């Protein structure tokens, strides 16, 4: 293993820079060269390379976003795109590629890795936490903390005005973020895409709360549950209680990573280089049973990560 | 002046609690009694009173929202509502009423004050900063800081993805918040209700930026400028650049007040009691020429506060 | 199990309130009564009790400190103190006591539990993370995040002035906090009580950094490593580089808990009630292998938790 | 006015970068060249120059510290040092020099400006707020907000443990920071260098508070008031109440500037260029009577800024 490439792909996540730093410095420490590819897969296809060394990743551990930039790049899903990427890796003699991103990025890495010698190692970094094989992804903890900071502020207004609030958090398909945010802000109700709900039941809970003297409530909803605007109107109409909607939006993605996101980025980045040093590819770095390990890339992208229903149940009891 | 009443009305603003604390403690220090009315004007109409003393406002200086709760109460705009409120003030022998809120609250206070002996003093507290006669309102500084904290995070994502972002901040009618946020995050473009704009000009600026190598930009838009969702689509269509919308929403209203909001609340609260002690009413507390003073309530509600165009001009030059 | 008691003891930690809330609500959900003892063990000795129910723990999940207050209470270490505490538990018919605190609190719980029927369950909550049997304690994550927020600010000044900074973090005996803070701020050097160091080696590292053009550095030191004031002077004298000391102090203990601290508090609180419901005592709740479990109280207090040297090694490589 | 120089000098303050950005962009907008001098006055003496343009100050508005670095440089106080600095300004044809810093920096600017043609304009930037002629300096608001954030956390611990806390904030000679922090955290006692105090009076206040049931208190002390460590011991000994000391330290200096610090930096930077464009020197930019203006540099450095005793009086009443 002489030369390692790094690409950040898909949606950005806080801690991606800390992971770039870790991969680069551990590789440099072990005498390897490091090349960064810019703008996600587009950088491999168009040859946007940036040599990285210990100094060029200085001062980025606490920065949100990714210094390598990222895009969503459908081109990598074509055989032509992959051929160009393969040629680029060959040209720069990249023995191992560290792919920092989420599920979609890993799918592309698997397809690309099938036909070439460059070893692929995925480093899970997405605020959605939806990568099978790891209990946690880089950036998830930061996104949760950012979201609860905003919800704590909204709670001030909810209580002052004695209103219902629906707070929509990110998560088009999955409810990991919504369920953790909901549990830790003490939300009265949590709605996730994985668990169908009946509006009538919501109205019942809200009315039951009101009859106990609770005049305000926070409903945390993943964006994937449907039209939250309509839901707010329906609640207001059916319960007679003022209901507001707040969509947290992109602020959840950015910001300086929490210690935990930086820690995970450092450990995952280190593990990725260790795997490549041992000539192991087709893997992702993972946190399982409290330890940093590796897991099959193939199996990760093939399997849907289950949402733990116990957290929703706990949140429900604790909100009573 | 023996008994002072306090009401918080309209949208909540960070620092309202610090103002309640200041009014209560200064009044108590001067030997007066203090009565809080709950849920804004509704509290005066329905007689929801809570006696306040130095101890009951302990530990609230750093809390967002208002412990007295608030509502928007159309009832106070009727003569019947005002009659009930007047009766309530008479019943509790309230000599002076401190109204903590914004423009709408002061309008109600003026109307109510016309026919009764209770003196009215307004304490400007609104994140919109749209009260004529004062350079700043309680809560404005906090809302700006909260908003720039979120925009700084969004900037991480904007740069990483090399995207345009429209960030919608509060302000249905006025652009005070938008212009200050825009200036202090270094927004490329600021849109406020007071200044009409042509979409074509936006496209030109964005393309000029792009030709200089700026691949991402932040557009700060007050909610009152129109349909920001449509604007994002139009920009994407006309410039070919990915454009996202983020609506900051209610998180801008809450949270622990900044030092400046707490300071202003303490000074305004103190001034309000001083005015009432001197048997002066029909006034609001103000910050003008860097000093805490008073100003005619009548003139304040009758006049629209102008937006300083110099800030927009400065922001435009600084964003080049 | 009809009545559960709760006591928070030792140094306060962010998330204690979230744990009180969880124990109370889970217990109430299961039909049990809950009694809070105030001011740590003193509350059991002096009979300072406060009945708790689902409503009385409302709105505290995001509050730092502990609503039950806490003290360091040497009296509980005497047989007389324990006798009084036992009598108090008997008087209030407390079947199970949840002790929220650290190592010292658990030691007292074990001693107290030996002679009485009340079952003891410990919930680890301390920013020091020094409880054997659990990978993490409530409050640790928050303290790390608070500390790195402060160090990130100090880094601004360190770089602007091109200075060395020693930042002393809490930890009289153990280096868990220092090592995690050091890793996640990218500290050039980390000093912990568990690993003896020679000043000469520090000087060498600092000079080596300087020769590579690094004119500023952050040294994270646990308070237990000795006289940091002297160390700063020694570094300045031996390297000729301006060196400043910053002691982070008590701000590390307080503040709104992070999502992770709230999560852990919710899970541990729930687990504690589950154990007591099953008539199990003499246990602590733990996070091990990524799961919430229980562990012998006896073994926990008898064993010193080892510091993982791999984190220090990783931090050292990543700081190069 | 063709070429403007910028130097940041003395202790760093949040917002210095925003000021560098404003000066550079306003100057560039008006067709001038800009040169930055690095490491404060040392840069003028040793010729450490860095050309600045609109692009080189991109992305710094929200960064703490100063990209130009700063030092305390006694050399500029010698005639030899000033001769070298004058020669450097002449060599680079600097018509106007913007000095971003505090009192000491302005003193040096005045001395340097006496013998040369380069016009001097001071931009007040110091967390101490101790510059005569301006109501506020860049960085002051941020330092106050950072400090109150830390004190709010310490308050959690103070209340939980029912303890006294002395919190030492920056301010070797002046109490502007301490008095504003004290007022806005609701400190029970504020100690500043400008107002001598008797320990006995402190003990009396603390005992009076205790007799009213207040078991915890926050004392905000400027570092210039003397030995806070001894004071803590004296209070503990004389009142019998546990008393802790927390020195906030260098974290007060760094961090992303608040909106207000960024606003002031933008306005001051703009004003500085405007003054130089009008061939005006020997001035500082100021905020007076709520407006951005200029003020005599000579008079500013010759006069000590008075501390407003009304703030301390207000804080005292509000803390009862």
UniProtKB/TrEMBL annotation, chains A, B, C, D:
Keyword Metal-binding: yes
Alphabetic keyword roster: Allosteric enzyme, ATP-binding, Cytoplasm, Glycolysis, Kinase, Magnesium, Metal-binding, Nucleotide-binding, Transferase
InterPro entries in the cross-refs: ATP_PFK, ATP_PFK_prok-type, PFKA_ATP_prok, Phosphofructokinase_dom, PKF_sf
Cofactor(s) named in the record: Mg(2+)
Record-annotated Phosphofructokinase domain positions: 4-276
Gene Ontology MF, one: ATP binding
GO cellular component: 6-phosphofructokinase complex
Catalytic activities: beta-D-fructose 6-phosphate + ATP = beta-D-fructose 1,6-bisphosphate + ADP + H(+)
Record-linked PANTHER family: ATP-DEPENDENT 6-PHOSPHOFRUCTOKINASE, PHOSPHOFRUCTOKINASE
Protein name: 6-phosphofructokinase
Gene of this entry: pfkA-2
């Amino acid at each position: 293993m002489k030369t390692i490439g790094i690409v950040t792909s898909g949606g950005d996540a806080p801690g991606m820079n800390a992971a770039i730093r870790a991969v680069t410095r551990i590789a440099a420490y072990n005498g390897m060269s490091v090349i960064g590819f810019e703008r996600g897969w587009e950088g491999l296809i168009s040859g946007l390379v940036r040599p990285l060394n210990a100094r060029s990743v200085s001062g980025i551990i606490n920065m949100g976003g990714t210094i390598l930039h990222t895009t969503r790049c459908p081109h990598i899903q074509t055989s032509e795109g992959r051929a160009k990427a393969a040629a680029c890796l060959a040209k720069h003699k990249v023995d191992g590629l560290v792919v920092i991103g989420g599920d979609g990025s890993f799918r592309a890495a698997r397809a690309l890795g099938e036909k070439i010698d460059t070893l692929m190692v995925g480093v899970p970094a997405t605020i959605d936490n939806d990568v099978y094989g790891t209990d946690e992804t880089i950036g998830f903890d930061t996104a949760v903390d950012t979201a609860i900071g905003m919800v704590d502020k909204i709670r001030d207004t909810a209580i002052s005005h004695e209103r219902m609030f629906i707070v929509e958090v990110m998560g088009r398909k999955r409810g990991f973020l919504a369920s953790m945010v909901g549990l830790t802000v003490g939300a009265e109700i949590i709605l996730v895409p994985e668990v169908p709900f009946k509006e009538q039941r919501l109205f019942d809970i809200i009315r039951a709360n009101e009859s106990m003297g609770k005049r305000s409530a926070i409903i945390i909803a993943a964006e994937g549950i449907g039209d939250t605007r309509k839901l707010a109107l329906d609640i207001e109409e059916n319960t007679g209680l003022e209901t507001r909607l707040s969509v947290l939006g992109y602020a959840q993605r950015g910001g300086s990573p929490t210690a935990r996101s930086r820690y995970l980025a450092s450990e995952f980045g280190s593990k990725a280089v260790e795997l490549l040093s041992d000539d192991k590819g087709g893997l992702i770095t993972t946190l399982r049973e409290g330890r940093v390990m590796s897991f099959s890339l193939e199996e990760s992208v093939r399997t849907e990560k289950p949402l733990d229903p116990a957290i929703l149940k706990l949140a429900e009891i604790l909100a009573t």
